[in-house]
Amino acid sequence: MTQGVAVIGNSGPKVRSDIEVTLKVTRSGGIVIILKSKVKSMYGKTIEEQCRDILSFYGIKNATITLDDSGALPYVISARMEAAIRSVTGDKKELLPMMLPQNLYKSDAHRFRFSRLYLPGNSPGMFINAGLHNPDGVILDLEDSVALPKKDEARILVRNALRAVDFYGAERMVRINQGSRGFDDLDYVIPQNVHLILVPKCETAKNIKAIDEHIEKIKAKHQLTSPVYLMPIIESALGVENAFEIAKTTPNIVALAIGLEDYTADLGVPRTREGHESLYARNRIVVAAKAAGIQPIDSVFSDVGDMEGLLNNVTSSKAMGFEGMGCIHPRQVPVIKQGFAPSPDEIEKAKKIVIAFREATEAGLGVVSLGTKMIDPPVVTRAEKTILLAMKLGLLSEDWSEEKTTE
Amino acid sequence: MTQGVAVIGNSGPKVRSDIEVTLKVTRSGGIVIILKSKVKSMYGKTIEEQCRDILSFYGIKNATITLDDSGALPYVISARMEAAIRSVTGDKKELLPMMLPQNLYKSDAHRFRFSRLYLPGNSPGMFINAGLHNPDGVILDLEDSVALPKKDEARILVRNALRAVDFYGAERMVRINQGSRGFDDLDYVIPQNVHLILVPKCETAKNIKAIDEHIEKIKAKHQLTSPVYLMPIIESALGVENAFEIAKTTPNIVALAIGLEDYTADLGVPRTREGHESLYARNRIVVAAKAAGIQPIDSVFSDVGDMEGLLNNVTSSKAMGFEGMGCIHPRQVPVIKQGFAPSPDEIEKAKKIVIAFREATEAGLGVVSLGTKMIDPPVVTRAEKTILLAMKLGLLSEDWSEEKTTE
Amino acid sequence: MTQGVAVIGNSGPKVRSDIEVTLKVTRSGGIVIILKSKVKSMYGKTIEEQCRDILSFYGIKNATITLDDSGALPYVISARMEAAIRSVTGDKKELLPMMLPQNLYKSDAHRFRFSRLYLPGNSPGMFINAGLHNPDGVILDLEDSVALPKKDEARILVRNALRAVDFYGAERMVRINQGSRGFDDLDYVIPQNVHLILVPKCETAKNIKAIDEHIEKIKAKHQLTSPVYLMPIIESALGVENAFEIAKTTPNIVALAIGLEDYTADLGVPRTREGHESLYARNRIVVAAKAAGIQPIDSVFSDVGDMEGLLNNVTSSKAMGFEGMGCIHPRQVPVIKQGFAPSPDEIEKAKKIVIAFREATEAGLGVVSLGTKMIDPPVVTRAEKTILLAMKLGLLSEDWSEEKTTE
Questions:
Q1: How far is C148 from chain A (nearest CA, A)?
Q2: What number is the ipTM of this complex?
């Protein structure tokens, strides 16, 4: 497949911010570019120039290129051209857009992960506004939302997006593919300051260990030092059986998610709204995650139109012990974020713990106690985070500790 | 007990197709036979002759035999006589009836096991019509349905039935006893083309491994090559704890069943119709079985008269992920079989998977996909079985793939 | 802290049977005792004398002691004085009250543990009548019910109570503290004929093994031979994950309890009356305990005023397989005890098993059977206990076996 014609990217009435590149390398005739674009009058010249520069970068002197543009940004054009050239010539040279300086922020193992917004990895139209919805994390998805023939080009697009798109402080996540394809995905995305990798259909500790080790190799090669966190997704009965083993495989695992569509398919049962068929598995995931000291994360709620159903789902999820959910539409973000946010009771309890900790520290005591109960250090850390988040969300004033606590 | 009188078999107003043999070996006087039978006028002579032949086979020249016949077939008469002679003389020589040629069919690890009909192993009256009810399997039971003093004679009767009774294609199963008695049971039944052994009160991987190894020894001795499948029955808290370990002990295990009467007794709680007390255990069995890639099988429904209750039970069982149930009465077979059979939705999905697989194969692709999802090979196998079964059940026409799928 | 003033014990309007000791060791001036007590006219002299004797035992010649007495018995006065002297002087010499001869009774691994009454370890007022409420066990609690600064004095008080208070046949239990403090607790209480140690927040087999080994060391040192049983309390997700491993760590473990206040806090969820959030954990504890052959024990019911709620809780607990519950108030004892006691059906079944066992033994049979079922030896033992208890509770006459069983 290193010769012939490549068609890369998407076009059509519903496509935005993308460009479909049809590339044919010819023997002679120079570079011929045919551009179709609504913004041709304004950006036509710039697009053509970028394409010529890229072809020159790859040493291609004769080619016919048809471009169907729906308002693609330069990093998208670059990704599509690179994928097209690689497909036709087999040239694996990478053409990296500039890493935005604001994209170099770090994450934190214990940060809240209430909401994480799934973005289909080959649909650039959804990338640009994702961060504005203020989810705790964005997931650039290379797995289920990308059709099989589009897997290679999506990988390049996602790599570029991680460098050129500002996600406004959201945790930067990528869901890789299952199997060996997933290992290749890692080679592309790990060097781009990815914070967290979602590992689909994780079934064994061995599976997640191999991924963790591969990431460490890539980090060593690129001299990267920041941790890359892992969120295994449990999507099968075998994954449920091994959930606790999986959860404690490596300290890089910070959360354990369940994927109910695949899980119920594995069980061979329909997924119902009541969810009796998956209650056992969800409970077991919560306990496995909490036992390993990590966050249990619930499955996505599929019916984007049913906001009341979503809220009920969030409420029962939180009551079971889950600490977050995936979002498949931006409108789900605020409901999920607010639903998992600390309640007034939780904030009040956190205040008492933090005050007790401060008093104990001031008094030089080795242990913190609240009433007759000793407070473990992780409980203090968690309380401090709850306080911080409550302040961030405007649920608590900055000088709360100077006010009197109620009760 | 190698001298004296033996009373073998059953008699009484409710007994059918059996013969009660009372044998006394004497010092002199030759063979004296006293026969009581409704069919004496027609078959009296034949029965007497068979008994004389058998006594001669064992070299017994003086004996008094009282026969209380309720229409026993020759294989039953033979089994009862052998058991009586063994009881009195200790002679362990086997007297095997002819193996029917149609009884040599094979089973298949992945065949459906929706319904399996329990047949008390010492009650020949229920054997003859069992196959006509068309259950997926028949279980000749040596355990709970056989009283302690009848264990030895049941073993001989079941051995003979496996050779002489036609079960019309049902999977040929035997439930052995617990402990060392179960190992002895295997010596009798394994050489008779048994497809599957049900192992009651299985509690540890070690337990099922020992049984599997004993079966392999018997197979080697008799130069048998067909696999003998295993279905451990989980009937205790310890079994539930070890269910996953048990399920993956040997590839011969094809299903994992739960027995709720014994399980609730082990827990020390009454078994209720709602079944809250066993919901956790049932869920755990389903997940353990699916995680090991085998079939989870639900407990029997005890109230033979309540067909609506049975249907509800089947529906909720299937919704949980179970793939079959035991039947304690032939009338339960059709309800269970239909309840676990593929639904129209399931058939539709299977059609799509099979079509996708055929198209992928024709196109020379290494992977099969449906939409954006890759289809694993076992899912294809399962879909093919669903299609096959749907055709068998008349739910799908033979030329379905030439018709257009809906949607 | 080996100089200065010590204030030990409790005083106040609600305090009964206690004495608050304020001790200051001085350089000269002899022993000065200031006693405040309602019973001063009757017992003032005796109290003063006891205090002088104790000071003399510790070689203290100059001290000012203020006593605020609310009717303390000698073993309480002794405990408070010892704690005060130790606090001021650091002298660790033990001053043991006489062990009551009636306190030397033994327990039994398989005894019923329906109800166990929690007694805050530093509140002597509740000790004296505890046994009169006839709970299966009394728990002298050194953990959650004792405030941090009172931990040391509580340990001495509990040690004395185990010697000087008659609990009228209740199993003698102590709940120790978590961590290294718990090991120190053991040094004080193990030599006092303690029957059972409750181990709070047990999370790993290693944890309970270390405690078991420490107890064996103390027993060896004091040449004690009676077993000290263990009841680990599962109070976290990690404990739930490891419950089965924990339950089978040592044969001294006779029961496994769940503590729902701490468990739900660990999960980060509120504890509701319906308890959906802990149903999975409770089921798992029941199965783990039964699989290990020990007693599953449910959490306490916190609302002391709601007797109907308590009864519902007991009923559903028993239906799940639990065999007991903690009591935080004496009035809960009879409801819990009766709720978990054998029902008429259970007694009837136990009678049949015991009769079958007797008949089998008389007939010289190796196995016991009831109908077609073999009866395992632990089932016989349990049945015998049920019979014994039913007789004790007046539910069965002493000569029941001579009467005809119904059915």
A1: 6
A2: 0.89
